[in-house]
Design a protein that fits this description.
The chain is α+β, with helices and mostly antiparallel strands. It is built from eight helices and 14 strands. Bound molecules: zinc ion.
């Protein structure tokens, strides 16, 4: 029996995963890496997708021009921050990522998905407004049309179909999940088994106490919400785990999830639960 190559070199390839790493299967297979970009901007970028011509980036809050509770790279136009500063932050984020201006939607915690094309690219980007009204997921199938959703605790979800050259950016809070945003976003794709899904930093179960009405509403759509109950504390919703479970139930097999909690990391992420008046980070997705 012959092991390795015929020339005798490299009998076995080195293990691709560090076996001493934490045993959480999601974390150990994650290809999301924190990347330091220009102007002090950082983002979690999927390095594998990037090599294959698709950008999926979850921005962090350093490097922008906003101050106070919005410091610094606030990308949310409706956060209460000066819109001119947000527009400048958006320009800087796109420049740092090497992409043209992204298309963003006026999000409303619903289940509406909108497709955007070259005609929408960058439109009204600098005017302190979002070009697409009333949508919590954007889908793009053309190069040069980056899409974004902005979040501060809600789950930012990217869906990529490499074969169809199609990407979606989804804003999934508990209301959106209960309203069916995951189902409607998946409906924009031909085959869920072909999708690569990425769940970015969001509020974790340690910081997300909810009432029974929230658990009930999410469970009605998602099958069963992932809830943590221990001791005297109120039940806590694990929203990222709930999103993962529902995606898997709907046939998505390739899925990775950041384990970062936005409320645990105020230096890196905005958290509505943690801070109240605050900015928004973004999930930005683009076919390059
Ligand atoms: Zn936390």
């Amino acid at each position: 029996m012959m092991w390795g190559r015929r020339d005798g070199r490299g009998a076995l390839p080195p293990p691709e995963e560090d076996l001493s790493a934490p045993t959480n299967p999601v974390a150990s297979f994650s290809m999301l890496r924190p990347i330091a970009l220009e102007d002090g901007i950082s983002a979690l970028v999927d390095v594998s997708l990037r090599q294959r011509g698709v950008l999926v980036a979850f921005t962090e809050r350093g490097g922008g021009v906003s101050s106070g509770p919005f410091s610094a790279l606030n990308l949310g136009m409706r956060s209460g921050d000066d819109r001119a500063l947000v527009a400048e932050n958006r320009r800087r984020a796109c420049a740092a990522l090497g992409i043209p201006a992204f298309v963003a939607a006026h999000q409303f915690h619903g289940s509406v998905v909108r497709s955007v094309g070259p005609a929408d690219a960058g439109a009204r980007f600098d005017l302190g407004d979002d070009v697409v009204s009333g949508a919590d997921a954007l889908v793009a199938g053309a190069s040069g049309v980056p899409i974004a959703v902005t979040v501060a605790d809600c789950v930012p979800l990217a869906l990529v179909d490499m074969a169809a050259r199609r990407v979606a950016a989804v804003h999934a809070g508990w209301r959106g999940v209960a309203a069916g945003i995951l189902r409607s976003a998946l409906a924009a794709f031909e085959d869920p088994a072909r999708i690569e899904a990425l769940i970015g930093p969001a509020v974790g179960p340690d910081h997300y106490e909810v009432g029974p009405e929230v658990v009930e509403a999410v469970s009605a759509e998602a099958g069963r919400a992932c809830v943590v109950e221990d001791g005297p504390r109120k039940p806590r919703l694990d929203l990222p785990a709930t999103v993962e479970r529902m995606l898997r139930q709907l046939g998505v097999a390739h899925l990775q999830r950041s384990n970062l909690c936005t409320a645990c990391e105020p230096g890196r992420f905005y958290s509505y639960r943690g801070e109240g008046r605050t900015g928004r980070q973004a999930l930005i997705a683009a076919l390059l």
